[in-house]
Amino acid sequence: xxxxxxxxxxxxxxxxxxxxxxxxxxxxxxxxxxxxxxxxxxxxxxxxxxxxxxxxxxxxxxxxxxxxxxxxx
Length: 73
Fold this sequence. Notes:
Number of helices: 4
Strand content: under 5%
Radius of gyration: 11 Å
Protein name: DUF2795 domain-containing protein
Low-confidence stretches: 63-73
């Protein structure tokens, strides 16, 4: 299961935006690890709106698709 819906915590996000903005907006809105964790696994692409974010989180289904070790130079 992908976890709770992050959209209530993303009202202040300025779309389109990437993962970093989503994490900032969610943290500022008081989101816990159950929201921030799945958002942190999203690809660093731009998301058009909260519905696209929720779709990406559900598609991820809790699996880490963001491997930071492979991104390091």
